[in-house]
């Protein structure tokens, strides 16, 4: 039986758009992520109108069909061409800017709000949804998650999908190891495939100072039972033969780390939590809190208010904004980090590879694309999702330096997300301000990696079971107590 194809680039049939709509993905951005339409070389030029027409036929509102932003480059450009550009001549705030136009109206909330809840979680990223799921596993049903936009709109849906336990402190290693276990069991528990692939992480040290860093981390990781090894360049090239071994002097290799496809984890956690009684509402930004007697009594939104016993701030880069509504000041500093995807190659890259000191990281998807990013020390703080030519030039120079064979590979699309940075690169957890206003933010670039384990531990504490030491050690008032031991193994 034939099928009507709406998106030829990604082979998305008409029926798949209908399936997405029936599962609650009504707005265009959500349908794009669920089906994959508009993510190929034409970026929706040939299929957007047809998808919009079908969504309107199914009952979408005008606010739900606001066209998404096509991501640069306009046409595929090779890494070699981009590497020939001098990034120092390219500014941070130019390239292909976001279009200047009035903000479109938000779609209506995805459903009515309950009048009351035991717990209201502000933020529908993986941290908030993991917590909601774990709370319902422990018998709590009156849990509400409020997301200001669509699921996967923030950092959780914009990251490279790397998940690892190679960290520099025992606490982060412990959390990373537990999260890896939970990532592996996710599909069996929720019925949603997150495409977890245990290909390992390979960290490249370009000089002696970075080797010493790897050796210090190796001691911590071995004490936690990890299989991490320090490799020579020749040994590293046995793991990834395409590497230019002259560019690094040693490498750290843990084969148990891996890569996931981020989007299904949010959908899976949300669906599983709702199946157990939780409520997840998208397009429901929080506008304020009712506070009295040192407690948050209610959460206010444009669609109504929810009386509650506990509020959790899991807003990621927007956590300081949420905290201010409760009279709380957080030191979190959001910073843009850009990322890209290439055209497909025959699979050749097993692990995620990262070059220490440069921030470069890259892996290969199951379809063969190179997915990678690279932080920029000159990036100013602030929430931003625009894309720059400077990033393309910096990344392309770094990638082709380590893997010359990628020079002819085209860049298909770039985008950006935001790290949620704290002064010591550790999260902010526990109460701040009102005694029932709990924090779950400040994970820099590793919130996705830590979310399964932290959500599990936080749910244990919130339901009267054991309280892990992280909820006392990582409270916001630690910055008043003096310098703390920070996590220094941040990439990107």
Characterization of the model:
With 492 residues, this protein is an alpha+beta fold. The protein has 13 helices and 21 strands. Among the domains are: 5-68, Arc Repressor Mutant, subunit A, CATH 1.10.10; 116-158 and 263-330 and 424-480, FAD/NAD(P)-binding domain (3-Layer(bba) Sandwich).
Key phrases:
single chain, eight-stranded mixed sheet, 492 residues, globular, Arc Repressor Mutant, subunit A, nine-stranded mixed sheet, alpha+beta, FAD/NAD(P)-binding domain
CATH class of the domain at 116-158 and 263-330 and 424-480: Alpha Beta
Radius of gyration, CA atoms, in whole angstroms? 22 Å
In whole angstroms, the N-to-C terminal distance is: 46 Å
CATH topology of the domain at 116-158 and 263-330 and 424-480: FAD/NAD(P)-binding domain
State the CATH superfamily name of the domain at 116-158 and 263-330 and 424-480: FAD/NAD(P)-binding domain
Mean pLDDT, rounded to whole units?
94
* Unreliable stretches: none
The major pleated sheet works out as: 9 strands, mixed
What percentage of the residues does DSSP assign to strands (E)? 15-25%
Secondary structure tally: strands: 21
Strand order of the largest sheet: 3-19-15-18-17-16-7-9-8
What structural class do you assign from the helix and strand content? alpha+beta
Number of helices: 13
Second rung of CATH, namely the architecture of the domain at 116-158 and 263-330 and 424-480: 3-Layer(bba) Sandwich
The outline comes out as globular
Helix content: 25-40%
């Amino acid at each position: 039986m034939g099928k009507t194809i709406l998106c030829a680039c990604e082979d998305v049939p008409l029926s798949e758009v209908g399936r997405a709509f029936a599962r609650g993905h009504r707005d265009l951005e959500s349908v794009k992520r669920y089906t994959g339409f508009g993510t190929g070389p034409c970026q929706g030029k040939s299929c957007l109108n047809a998808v919009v027409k079908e969504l309107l036929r199914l009952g979408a509102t005008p606010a739900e069909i606001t066209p998404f932003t096509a991501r640069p480059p306009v046409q595929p450009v090779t890494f070699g061409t981009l590497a020939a550009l001098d990034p120092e001549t390219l500014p941070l705030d130019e390239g292909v800017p976001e279009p200047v136009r009035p903000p479109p109206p938000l779609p209506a909330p995805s459903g009515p709000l309950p009048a009351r809840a035991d717990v209201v979680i502000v933020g529908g990223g993986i941290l908030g949804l993991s917590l909601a799921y774990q709370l319902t596993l422990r018998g709590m049903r009156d849990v509400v998650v409020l997301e200001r936009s669509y699921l996967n709109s923030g950092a959780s849906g914009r990251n490279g999908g790397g998940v690892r336990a190679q960290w520099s402190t025992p606490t982060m290693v412990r959390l990373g190891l537990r999260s890896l276990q939970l990532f592996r069991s996710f599909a069996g528990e929720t019925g949603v495939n997150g495409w977890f692939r245990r290909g390992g992480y390979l960290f490249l040290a370009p000089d002696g100072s970075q080797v010493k860093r790897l050796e210090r981390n190796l001691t911590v990781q071995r004490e936690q039972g990890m299989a991490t090894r320090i490799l020579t360049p020749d040994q590293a090239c046995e793991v990834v033969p395409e590497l230019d071994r002259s560019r690094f002097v040693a490498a750290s290799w843990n084969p148990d780390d891996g890569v996931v496809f981020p989007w299904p984890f949010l959908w899976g956690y949300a669906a599983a939590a709702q199946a157990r009684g939780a409520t997840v509402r998208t397009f429901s930004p929080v506008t304020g809190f009712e506070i009295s007697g040192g407690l948050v009594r209610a959460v206010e939104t444009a669609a109504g208010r929810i009386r509650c016993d506990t509020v959790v701030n899991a807003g990621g880069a927007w956590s300081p904004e949420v905290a201010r509504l409760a009279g709380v000041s957080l030191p979190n500093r959001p910073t843009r980090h850009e990322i890209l995807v290439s055209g497909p190659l025959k699979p050749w890259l097993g692990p995620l590879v990262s070059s220490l000191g440069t921030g470069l990281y890259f892996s290969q998807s199951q379809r063969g694309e190179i997915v990678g990013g690279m932080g920029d020390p000159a990036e100013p703080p602030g929430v931003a999702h625009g894309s720059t030519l400077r990033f393309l030039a910096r990344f392309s120079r770094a990638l082709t330096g380590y893997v010359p064979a990628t020079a002819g590979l085209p860049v298909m699309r770039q985008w950006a997300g935001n790290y949620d940075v704290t002064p010591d690169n550790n999260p902010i957890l526990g109460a701040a301000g009102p005694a029932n206003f709990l924090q779950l933010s400040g994970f820099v670039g590793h919130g996705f990696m830590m979310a399964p384990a932290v959500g599990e531990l936080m749910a244990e504490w919130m339901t009267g079971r054991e309280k892990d030491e992280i909820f006392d050690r990582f409270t916001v008032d630690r910055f008043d107590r003096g310098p703390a031991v920070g996590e220094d193994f941040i990439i990107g």
